[in-house]
Design brief:
single chain; about 450 residues; alpha/beta; Spore Coat Polysaccharide Biosynthesis Protein SpsA, Chain A; 8-stranded mixed sheet; two-stranded parallel ribbon; 14 helices; about 10% strand
Length: about 450
């Protein structure tokens, strides 16, 4: 049996190594020059005996169900799974005979591995085992095996083929068949509604104990997940979705375990605290989600064509949408300010506020820059671009005043609209070439920049 010494923090647990095959996580690279994940590819044929799938079963004091459930899962995989597999029993500081049963299964079944942690926490167990696993696809399921095992191959197939980055079982999909009490049904649906309303989550079921992830994605994603308990799943999915990773959902048949030892009220409170923490981190841009960006596997929009700048079409569309909204925002501010001040001062105030908002929106949505790195510099450069726009629009107002001092207010607005549109085109060119240039570099160039 492999054991994990007690850790004093989630970060320490994430760094712990429980197997010689564990590779150093690539997230240690300089975050100022994030290296995108490689394009998804179908997993290569593994050598005979090498596991493609590592299924982790986190347990705490499960002496009654552990052996029966592990044998059932092992029998199912041996009969139906066409690739090598491993089952890892992650014991979370059990005080009953769970460790002895795990060790016995490890001795008897070559595909079973027993792992011991001295601290409780499902998230801690998954992070530690997954970080050290050498299998290219990592999964986990609850020990009660409430989910029909026939959904396991559909769960991991999109990860093996390279279609998706993560996969989850969903009890809330239209074609799922679920047997559970009204109380748990209400709590589950309410929790997922909270996630949709507060974190804009689009996945349907965060709490189903039936998930899988590619190892290359896990190596980047897990160090960003802080929770070590039940909220671990939700945090992982929210960050993956916000980073643009593809999450595959599988409708499942699921039967509730009436003997479950999960403390619903305490777990719900911990989950709500986690929602608040993650929402706040996303709002202030504290998470380096650009480390998780990756090109699609075979998307023709991402192919490099000579003479065609990469991503230009998508950036142009995004910039135009934001530019149109910024122009309306600017005109609204100008109209409101014009009632209390002169045209030049109203123009400058409206343009300043809309320029800051425009830079922030384009930084995140058009050019995909996330986190706080170089945020102040980007705003300073954006203000320089704003100064050019101010000169252009103020010059237009001065020219109008020289040509017609008694011009109507509607004429002022029309001139400013034309000048602002011209400034918008110039702003895009400067944003793309100067403020947010394409910093895709080779590893050697990144090292040189870091120095």
């Amino acid at each position: 049996m492999r054991t994990e010494p007690s850790a004093t923090s989630a970060a320490g647990t994430a760094r712990a190594v429980c197997s010689p095959s564990a590779a150093p996580a690539p997230h240690a690279a300089n975050p100022a020059h994030p290296v995108a994940l490689p394009a998804r590819r179908h997993l290569p044929v593994q050598p005979a005996g090498a596991p493609v799938l590592d299924v982790t079963i986190p347990v705490h004091n499960e002496e009654q169900d552990l052996e029966r459930c592990v044998r059932r899962l092992h029998d199912h995989l041996a009969r139906t799974f066409p690739y090598g597999f491993r089952i890892t029993v992650a014991d979370n500081a059990s005080t009953d005979s769970t460790p002895l049963i795990s060790a016995g299964l490890e001795r008897e079944l070559p595909e079973v591995r027993a792992f011991r942690l001295e601290e409780k926490g499902r998230g801690r167990a998954l992070r530690t085992v997954w970080s050290a696993s050498d299998a290219p696809v990592l999964a986990y399921m609850d020990v009660d095996l409430s989910t029909d095992l026939n959904a396991l191959l559909p769960l991991v197939a999109p990860l093996i083929s390279g279609h998706s980055d993560l996969a989850i079982g969903s009890r809330l999909a239209r074609s799922s068949r679920v047997v559970r009490g009204a109380k748990r049904e209400f709590i589950s649906r309410t929790y997922n509604l909270i996630l949709r309303g507060s974190l804009a989550a689009r996945f349907s079921d965060a709490q189903c104990g039936f998930k899988a992830i590619r190892r290359d994605v896990a190596q980047r994603l897990l160090p960003m997940v802080e929770d070590t308990g039940w909220f671990f799943d939700t945090e992982m999915l929210v960050l993956a979705e916000r980073a643009g990773l593809r999450i595959h959902e599988v409708p499942v048949d699921w039967v509730d375990d009436p003997a479950s030892t999960v403390h619903i009220a305490r777990t719900a409170m911990d989950d709500l605290k986690g929602v608040w923490r993650v929402g706040r981190a996303l709002a202030v841009g504290a998470l380096p989600l650009d480390r998780l960006s990756r090109p699609f596997g075979d998307d023709p929009r991402d192919r490099q064509l000579s003479g065609v700048p990469g991503g230009l079409a998508r950036q142009l569309v995004g910039f135009c949408v934001i530019g149109a909204l910024s122009t309306l925002f600017y005109l609204l501010l100008y109209a409101l300010s014009r009632t209390a001040m002169g045209p030049q001062l109203a123009n400058g105030a409206a343009l300043l506020v809309s320029a800051v908002a425009n830079t922030s929106a384009n930084r995140r949505l058009t050019f995909g820059v996330r986190g706080r790195d170089r945020a102040v510099r980007h705003q300073a450069q954006g203000l320089a671009v704003f100064a050019i726009g101010l000169a252009l629009t103020s010059g237009s107002l001065a020219a109008l005043d020289a040509a017609n001092p008694d011009a109507a207010h509607s004429t002022e607005v029309a001139v400013l609209l034309a000048a602002n549109l011209a400034a918008t085109v110039l702003r895009f060119l400067l944003f793309r070439a100067w403020v947010f240039p394409d910093r895709t570099t080779s590893p050697d160039e990144s090292k040189g920049d870091a120095r």
